Amino acid sequence: MSYVWVDGQAFEPIGDSLDLWLAFLRGNGARQAWMDVSGGEEVCRVIRGDGEETWRAIWNGGIFMLHGAEETGPPRRHETDVAAMAQRLHDAVHAEIEAGAADVRRAALERALEILASPGDGEEVSDVAWPYFVLPDGSSTAARRLVAAACAAWPETPATADPDAKPARGEGSVDAALEAIAAAVNSAATAEPVE
Fold first, then answer.
1. How far lies 111's CA from each of 1, 60, 118, in Å?
2. What CA–CA distance (Å, rounded) separates 80 from 85?
3. Whole-angstrom distance between the N-terminal and C-terminal Cα of the chain?
4. Bridge partners, residue 5, by sequence
5. How distant, in Å, are the alpha carbons of 51, 54, 70, 167, 174 from that of 178?
6. pTM more than 0.90
7. Residue 69, SS3 per DSSP
């Protein structure tokens, strides 16, 4: 992914690695960042000492880019209630199963419920390990369990990059899974720092 700062019609390339983007944010005085999935789009909001930024994923004919610009809209909420989002995800997954999810999709949804019911982070019932490594050290077990369950509930998309392949909002567990991922990621800001 490439990262680009957009100032009116001017584009300032930042680089093509997460480290370069994070260094850019630090250099601009970023104090807080969170995922915002409200309003029908998925963005990263950044608060600086002197203002706010919004970063959006943009499809650029073969790759996704993250474009950042000054935020001029109203303040946005950032959900961090992991327990409430776990319940919302549970209810949405259960409703999708009851609505007739079949075969592979049903198995993925049942795995999401098993992860949510786990006394630990759910890794013992998960079929992939990566959801357990996306949150920083110090993140709660409940947040790790939530992000793993949400990833299990996320509908499969084609292996090739396709901007039109993302699941439609409002279908099945998509909204609840997306909100759960955002809450788990955002809750890292409330975690105790690791010594």
1. 30, 34, 11
2. 8
3. 31
4. 12, 68
5. 26, 18, 24, 10, 6
6. no
7. strand
β pairing state of 43-48 and 64-70: unpaired
Burial 52-89 (b: 16+ CB within 10 A, else e): bbbbebeeeeeeebbbbeebeeeeeebbbebeebbebb
Assess contact for 142 and 190: CB atoms under 8 A.
no
pLDDT single digits (tens) 120-158 = 888 888 887 777 778 888 889 999 999 999 999 988 765
* Tokens 């005085």, located at residue: 29
The closest of 152, 80, 74 to 113, measured between CA atoms, is 152
User: Which structure tokens are listed for 127?
Assistant: 């079929």
- Tokens 């993250």, located at residue: 66
Return d(Cα 167, Cα 11) in angstroms, integer. Answer: 30
